[in-house]
Design goal:
This protein is α/β, with parallel strands linked by helices. The protein contains 12 helices and 13 strands. The protein folds into 2 domains: about 140 residues, Alpha-Beta Complex (Aspartate Aminotransferase, domain 1), CATH 3.90.1150.10; about 240 residues, 3-Layer(aba) Sandwich (Aspartate Aminotransferase, domain 2). It has a 7-stranded mixed sheet. Strands 9-10-13-12 form a 4-stranded antiparallel sheet, with helices on one face. Helix 6 links the parallel strand 5 and strand 6. The two termini are about 35 Å apart. The model has no long low-confidence stretch (mean pLDDT about 100). The structure holds pyridoxal-5'-phosphate (PLP). Pyridoxal-5'-phosphate binds next to helix 4.
Length: about 400
């Protein structure tokens, strides 16, 4: 069981109040979570003690090398990967995905087909347009009105021209949890790469890339209590087979060959602390065991709160929830809705005036919001539950929405 009160003590930003003494309520986790003190210390200790570039002979540079190896090891444990050499580091998921797409554009051929989905964030759609420059066809899987992908359409679109499938594990706009296990199994006997966007999934559930059998996976630490830095998992051997944009002077092997320039070392130090922080919630004898145990607790806590939020909003006549209900735990704790009298932006303005942080719009999942016919009225209001949220907070948010 998550001890919310204890967890909250680690997050200094949760103590903020507004001019009316309203405590701040963060429900913007899908846009980025708050960070615990351990992460802040991880970043500042790096600057206080070890700030340097890598591969030097002096103490701070050696400490930086050690720390950078450590963050790859931790992300590898978190994703259940074959080892730290499968983890590349980048500025953000979008940039990493563009770099990967550019590299793959040198591998794929004219007439090849790559599958993307209408539900995905633009960061897992836009970069693949690079492939069109070399004659690759992008094929889009349909989104259904209920906020799930059309899996009949999905499987029908996979054929012997398909060289890659790129899908999200869950939707940052609607909270849909996609059938990526089923798609992964379907692809097993096919000669086709499989990429998963874990950005909205990684804060809520544990991951095992080897079990999933994916070739690539991307995630961003700022969504799981860390700083703004992102990671690309590549199956052993894969990245080495690609021609990436890289300098002749840099390391010419995975995982480094897709990393350009000097990385954000301080942020990486913060990511190591974020993963240690998550693991400290769980129990076990290894980092992996602790992470798995922590994620079990996190997902139960978040689901209960999000279900309570969903059930409370569902009772309101003026509210229409967009996407899946909470009758099954196959759901992320992200609840999106529209109000019959107020635009999503106005709802968020009102929430903001009560010191409640929530986003409105399409959240870069533009195609999904367009497909659902929600774009002209300003998209949806999105409330995302995170580890540190409480039932009291949810009740207060519901009260404000009820009294709009
Ligand atoms: C599901 C999903 N994919 C990709 C991204 C892009 O991540 P980044 O900001 O690290 O480029 C986001 C960001 O919100 C997201 O929610």
């Amino acid at each position: 069981m998550i001890n919310s009160e204890k967890i909250r003590e680690y997050f200094p930003s949760l103590g903020r109040v507004d001019a009316n003494n309203n405590p701040i309520i963060y429900l913007d986790g899908p846009g980025g979570t708050q960070v615990p003190i351990q992460v802040i210390e991880g970043i500042s200790q790096y600057y206080i003690r070890s700030n340097a570039n890598t591969h030097g002979e002096f103490v701070t540079s050696k400490e930086t090398d050690f720390m950078m190896d450590g963050v790859r090891e931790r992300v590898s444990e978190m994703l259940g990967s074959e080892g730290p050499k499968t983890i590349s580091i980048g500025q953000n998921m979008t940039t990493l995905n563009y770099s990967l797409a550019r590299a793959l554009s040198r591998k794929f051929n004219e007439g090849d087909e790559v599958i993307i989905t209408e539900l995905d964030h633009e960061a897992n759609r836009g970069p693949w347009k690079v492939l069109e420059e070399v004659g690759v066809k992008l094929i889009e899987v349909k989104l259904l009105d209920n906020g799930t992908l059309d899996y009949t359409d999905f499987k029908n679109k996979i054929n012997n021209k398909t060289v890659m499938v790129c899908m999200g594990m869950s939707s940052n706009a609607l909270g849909t949890l996609n059938d990526f296990v089923d798609i992964g199994n379907y692809l097993k006997d096919k000669n086709c790469l499989f990429l998963l966007d874990a950005v909205h999934y990684a804060p809520h559930f544990s991951i095992n890339v080897q079990e999933l059998g994916c070739d690539f996976m991307l995630c961003s630490a700022y969504k799981f209590y860390g700083p703004h830095v992102s990671f690309l998992y590549s199956k052993p051997g894969l990245l080495d087979s690609l021609t990436t944009d890289r300098l002749v002077v840099q390391d010419q092997e995975a995982p480094y060959i897709i990393e350009t320039g000097t990385l954000n070392h301080a942020a990486c130090s913060g990511v190591a602390s974020a993963i240690d922080f998550i693991s400290s919630i769980g129990e076990g004898s290894s980092l992996r065991e602790k992470l798995e145990s922590a994620y079990k607790q996190i997902s139960i806590h978040e689901f209960e709160l999000a279900k309570h939020l969903y059930d409370s909003l569902q009772k309101e006549d003026k509210i229409t929830i967009i996407g899946q209900d909470f009758s099954s735990t196959k759901r992320t704790p992200t609840v999106s809705f529209v109000h019959s009298d107020f635009s999503p932006q106005d709802v968020c303005k009102k929430l903001a005036s009560e010191n409640i942080c929530a986003w409105d719009g399409h959240f870069y999942a533009l195609k999904a919001i367009q497909k659902l016919g929600l774009e002209p009225a300003g998209g949806v209001t999105r409330l995302g539950v995170s580890l540190y949220n409480t039932k009291l907070e949810i009740d207060r948010v519901v009260e404000v929405i009820k009294n709009l």
